[in-house]
Design goal:
Layout lengths: L6 E6 L2 E6 L3 E7 L2 E6 L4 E4 L3 H8 L4 E5 L2 E4 L3 E5 L5 E4 L4 E3 L5 H11 L2
Antiparallel strand pairs: 1-2, 3-4, 3-7, 4-5, 6-7, 8-9, 9-10
């Protein structure tokens, strides 16, 4: 199966949803609830831990930038280095990269553009 055709199954309350991994921009977790954000600005909330998403999505270009956010590196619009360490996503969302993750993030982000 081509990576562009890869799907993920999400369970939102009583509904099971199949989505393209490529359409996910980021996943933000608050407690036991994860919010999946899409290119079309739609959002789905599911009760699944971020570490479970991380294990499943890292092979598809995702990176955990801080304690509660997993981003799709392909959907980053810009990265502001320096004291802010700020990512702007294509949908306008802004995320701060944790100090501990910054060097690995830079490696992954720059290797993506090659």
């Amino acid at each position: 199966m081509n990576r562009k055709d890869k799907k993920i199954i999400l369970k939102e309350r009583n509904t099971i949803i199949q989505v393209d991994i490529e359409s996910i921009t980021m996943i933000v977790c608050e407690g036991y609830l994860s919010t999946i954000c899409f290119l079309n600005e739609k959002r789905i909330s599911v009760s699944k831990l971020l570490k479970d998403f991380e294990t499943e999505l890292i092979p598809y270009g995702f990176f955990r930038v801080n304690r509660n956010t997993l981003v799709n590196l392909k959907h980053i619009y810009s990265f502001q280095n320096g004291c802010k360490r700020l990512i702007t996503m294509v949908d306008g969302n802004k995320i701060i990269v944790s100090f501990r993750k910054i060097s690995q993030f830079k490696k992954n982000f720059t290797s993506l553009s090659r």
